[in-house]
Amino acid sequence: MANQEDIFKKVISHAKEYGYIFQSSEIYDGLSAVYDYGQNGVELKKNIREYWWQAMVQLNDNIVGIDAAIFMHPTTWKASGHVDAFNDPLIDNKDSKKRYRADVLVEDHVAKIEAKIEKEVKKAAKRFGDSFDKQQFLETNPRVLDYQAKADGILKRLGKSLENEDLADVKALIEELGIVCPVSGSKNWTDVKQFNLMFGTKLGATADSAMDLYLRPETAQGIFVNFLNVQKTGRMKIPFGIAQTGKAFRNEIVARQFIFRMREFEQMEMQYFIKPGTQKEWYDTWKEKRLKWHLSLGLGQDNYRFHDHEKLAHYADAAADIEFRFPFGFKELEGIHSRTDFDLGSHEKYSNKKLQYFDPEENKSYVPYVLETSIGLDRMFLAVFSSALQEEELENNTTRTVLKIPAVLAPTKAAILPLLKRDGLPEVAHKIVEELKWEFNVVYDEKDAVGRRYRRQDAVGTPFCITVDHQTLEDETVTIRHRDTMEQQRVKVDAVKDIISKEVDMRYWLQRI
Ligand code: GAP
């Protein structure tokens, strides 16, 4: 089996080869951690965004959407705490001159310990066969328990040092663990320093009158500053939510792992405004709801886990990540944060405007608490894309590369293929394209033998291929080939639309939530 690094390289090259993701400004040698979405990528991204929007806004009558500007008044970021506290601890290796996030170096070390646990599990599963009880093994095997205790201990200490801003201890931890620079292999580290992640820019024509601005590092603040506008104009009653998708910008130090950590990315966030004191209940509810949303896509239950935060951000009283098994291991995909009244309270203070809700049941006004769900659209893209990419051994000793993107998210739903380029078959195929294009994205393809065209559509992730052959001319039937099973059915041309609709319609997928 290919190792993690090879699989990840395959994901990146496949994304480029099939028009999903390109390096930004590639002809000028690219821009680090900035990416462009190609003709198929833009469709997949749009479908993921829509799947989120329908689940959050359309299906919840107490959640509405907004689209706030990327530029915001600079005081926003003072009030939100980003000017003072949106920092990453960084460390340089004196030999390679490379810069790293100190916490990521430690977390990568822990990931290696966790990989050892997975290896033990795999070995034991092989040894014990069907009688293997994974849970029991994890809870009783001495070697696994030892690894787990080590990993937990390291993360706990890291969390504590970061919370206490004890950067000297973070460095001490790196040294004690014997972590080496991946480039130079040396342990010659500088001290750990804080680095603010916001990008600055200027608004205004002349140097003296220009105002210093930041590119927003999260979309959430656009929701907080509009809380009262939406509440009043929408006559919203607590609990209610405001959702938004849009670009965010962070000057990430560790800008690797493809679209996992980008400097310009897109978030899909929802702030749920609640009565103070109910935050625990809503925290649990939204953790469950969001996990269900993920599971509805069928990427595999084993690919998700929760990670409860030891170190809480400056605004939170509880926080958890939904982690996904990316090609480089389990990593954060989405955050669920109980943000208390920190943001609204702080904006009240800095703006001198009341940001309160009059609760008719309580007959009093208060600053609502907030429960936030925040997911990176690009990260979700990577989760879908990387888990979809598979190499399959076929019966005739050949392999096929197939991108098993959930049909509801696939960029193109069907390819229409005339078996031959003559005998009137292309004309019939074009007619089918003309019919279906009103319903969903379809493509026409007549180049190469039909087997090669199937492979091409498998690799690009098209869930259905509709083939027009000579029998079509006689009885108005076509074959419909299913990407995942490669099964082919002969159906009436008139039935094609319904067969595809049933499998790509968001309603059928969202009903699983
Ligand atoms: N408003 C809360 C907030 O922004 P966060 O944990 O910093 O919380 C939320 O970010 C989500 O945004 C993450 O779970 C991740 O999916 C995505 N995200 C954060 N930084 C990112 C980056 N540099 N590149 C891509 N996605 C990122």
UniProtKB/TrEMBL annotation:
**Pfam families noted in UniProt:** HGTP_anticodon, tRNA-synt_2b
Xref: CDD domains: GlyRS-like_core, GlyRS_anticodon
Report residues binding ATP.
Answer: 250-252, 260-265, 332-333, 376-379
Mind naming one GO cellular-component term on file for this protein?
Answer: extracellular exosome
Q: Matching InterPro entries, A to Z?
A: aa-tRNA-synt_IIb, aa-tRNA-synth_II, aa-tRNA-synth_II/BPL/LPL, Anticodon-bd, Anticodon-bd_dom_sf, Gly-tRNA_synthase/POLG2, Gly_tRNA_ligase_bac, GlyRS-like_core
Q: Name one GO molecular function term.
A: glycine-tRNA ligase activity
Task: Look up the EC number in the record and give it.
Answer: 6.1.1.14
Q: Where is the Aminoacyl-transfer RNA synthetases class-II family profile domain?
A: 198-418
Keywords of the record, alphabetical order, are:
Aminoacyl-tRNA synthetase, ATP-binding, Cytoplasm, Ligase, Nucleotide-binding, Protein biosynthesis
Task: List the GO biological process terms.
Answer: diadenosine tetraphosphate biosynthetic process; glycyl-tRNA aminoacylation
Q: Where does substrate bind?
A: 101, 218, 265-269, 372-376
Main localization, broad class = cytoplasm
Q: Which residues form a coiled coil?
A: none
Where would you find this protein in the cell?
A: Cytoplasm
Q: Which reaction does it catalyse?
A: tRNA(Gly) + glycine + ATP = glycyl-tRNA(Gly) + AMP + diphosphate
Family of this protein: Belongs to the class-II aminoacyl-tRNA synthetase family.
The subunit structure is: Homodimer.
Q: What functional role does this protein have?
A: Catalyzes the attachment of glycine to tRNA(Gly).
How is this protein named in the record? Glycine--tRNA ligase
Record the organism: Flagellimonas meridianipacifica
Q: Which gene encodes it?
A: glyQS
